[in-house]
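Appendix C reproduces, verbatim, an entry submitted by the partner laboratory led by Prof. M.T., so that reviewers can inspect both the input and the predicted structure.
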Amino acid sequence: MLKSKMSEALNKQINEELYSSYLYLSMSAYFDNMGLKGFANWMRIQAMEERDHAMKLFDYLLSQGSEVDLKEIKEPQHKWNGIKDVIEATLEHEQHITQCINDLVDIAEELKDRATYNFLQWYIDEQVEEEENAREILDKLELIGDSKDALFMLDKDLAQRVYTPPITQA
């Protein structure tokens, strides 16, 4: 069983991940309302992945004999000042989540909780990828500037993203 400090921190992270999912669904709706179906698709899949991250934590807590304590999910932002603003907010949010994961690792180290430390390594790798993906889209938006043709191409490219459920261990 996990020590209470670790269990409480992991429960808090479940809420962070579910909020991330909620936020990205809001961003998806924003893009859909703009007619940017590709951006909307990318964000919807991002929301699904964040839900998966929460469930991975949920299952880990249960596997360790710890209690899952779900909290209220705050209302996400639903209005932005354009496409770039949304992607900048995405990167900023992912940087926040990276810090949350780093804080969890610090607690696992402090408590000498090797199993949780090992479990969290997947999240560290995932956050590197999450930040890189947001930066890549932001960089592309910078390159295309005001070109509607290039925006159309980027939207078309983002529409190709497909949800891949995580591999679960039996």
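The CA atoms of residues 101 and 124 lie 7 Å apart. Additional entries are available on request from the coordinating office.
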